[in-house]
From TrEMBL:
Species the sequence originates in: Periweissella fabaria
Domain of life per record: Bacteria
The protein's name: Uncharacterized protein
Length: 53
């Protein structure tokens, strides 16, 4: 798994957490979806892409 994929998985996990009944935070989930899309489109680097080798 490359660093971009790892970043996307991290965002997907956090989105899933935000959408659970006990935490339900749709606004934060929506923000995270936008960030994940931007990573996929190459507009921003993922969290793990900025790490060293």
């Amino acid at each position: 798994m490359d660093k971009k994929e790892l970043s996307i998985w991290a965002y997907l996990n956090e989105i899933e957490y935000c959408l659970q009944d006990e935490t339900l935070n749709r606004k934060r989930a929506s923000e995270l979806i936008d960030i994940a899309r931007d990573i996929l489109k190459g507009k921003v680097k993922g969290d793990f892409e900025d790490c060293g080798k």
